[in-house]
Amino acid sequence: MAAHTSQSVAKAAGGDGEEPVAARGRSRRTDTATAQNNGGVRRALATHWYAWAMIAPVVLVLGVIIGWPLARGIYLSLTDANERNVGRTIGANHIEATYKFVGLDNYADVLADPVFLQRLVWTVVWTVLCVSITFTLGLALANMLNREFRGRAAYRMALILPWAVPGFVSVFAWRFLFNRDSGILNKILDGGGISAIPWLDDPTWAKFSVVAVNVWLGVPFMMVALLGGLQSIPGELYEAAEMDGATAWQRFRHITLPGLRAVSMTVILLSTIWTFNMFPVIFLLTRGGPGDSTEILVTQAFREAFVASPRDFAGSATWGVLILALLMIFALVYRRSLRKQGEVW
To answer: I need a surface site. Which of 44, 127, 238, 280 has the fewest CB within 10 A?
Structure first.
């Protein structure tokens, strides 16, 4: 009887008590992990408090300068805000905002508009052309300047000069050079018996012109970055390859390009983002013309907010959010491709 009772008690404890015991064990492990994480955070704050104090103002400023406008833009893209229904002050009178929340209607309208596809196609073509040509020229110049020759420092300074000049100054200078009637380029062509080229008045030539100017502005950065990468490649590799009978092309292909992979991936990503959003070259050189042949996504967003009548703030914000989304998708795909190649980024 006593044995039967003890077996019953043990069975009850094993059956009904097993799950609560396991649950309590899991709860204790979870509480322990949480306590360890909290302790790790506290230790990190106590150890690196000076670093956190130094970066806190930067984080705060970036939050104000970038975070707030971004959140505001996303909110406006979900409304029908324009210059007629936003809040404004005229003299002593303040007019309250009357715009309404419309959800994703603006995104549907923009994506269904054939103008978006036109701007997107030209923006992609413009970006690919500029980045590929800039990278090729920058790599060629970096290889040239990586060698020992007389006057190398002077050549380096001369090639970096376009990067030091403010962008709007460079663009206005090129606009003067491209002038059809009084531009220096057409005067040179006229001296050679060649008729004047409508650099900024013909859609095809205008596209060629904006690409040329953007490449001229971007080559110095690409050259400096790649030159730094070249100088980090050990010279012993080239000496060993030359002793083994490798040609110049084989040394470039099997030593230079792999050695520049990390730098190249970074500068290509940065150059792509900058070119995709390169507003000054397009706007200051052609203002999107002739017609709208050189308009890219970012200039179209500007046109919606500051040129259209009435100014469409919601539409402009929608274009801006779509640009950001496209760049984020590109960055994610780019990062994934790098990880597949074994690059850490």
So the answer is: 44
Gap between the Cα atoms of 23 and 19, Å rounded: 6
Average pLDDT over residues 260-269: 89
pTM for the model: 0.79
- Over residues 132-188, the pLDDT tens digits come to 999 999 999 999 888 888 877 787 788 787 778 888 888 989 999 998 888 899 989
CA 239, 245, 249, 251 dihedral sign is: negative
* Confidence (pLDDT) at 40: 65
Q: Give the per-residue pLDDT at 15.
A: 45
Token pair for 149 = 């020759």
pLDDT for the residue 35: 46
State the Cα–Cα distance between residues 133 and 162, nearest whole angstrom: 16
Q: Would you say the C-alpha torsion 214, 216, 217, 221 has a positive or negative sign? A: positive
211: left (phi > 0), else alpha (psi -120 to 50), else beta? alpha
Give the length of the chain.
345
Q: Residue 81, by phi and psi: left (phi above 0), alpha (psi -120 to 50) or beta?
A: beta
DSSP 8-state symbol, 255: I
Structure tokens belonging to residue 72 = 């505001």
DSSP-assigned states of every residue in 118-154: HHHHHHHHHHHHHHHHHHHHHHHHHHHHTS--TTHHH
For residue 177, count other CB atoms closer than 10 A to its CB: 16
> Which alpha helices (H) appear in the chain, and where do they start and end?
2-16, 18-47, 49-62, 68-77, 105-112, 114-145, 152-164, 167-177, 184-191, 203-231, 235-243, 248-251, 257-259, 261-276, 279-285, 297-306, 313-340
Q: Which three-class secondary structure state does DSSP give residue 94?
A: strand
b/e 218-237 (16+ beta carbons within 10 angstroms → b): bbbbbbbbbbebbeeeeeee
> Which residue type, as a one-letter code, is found at position 302?
F
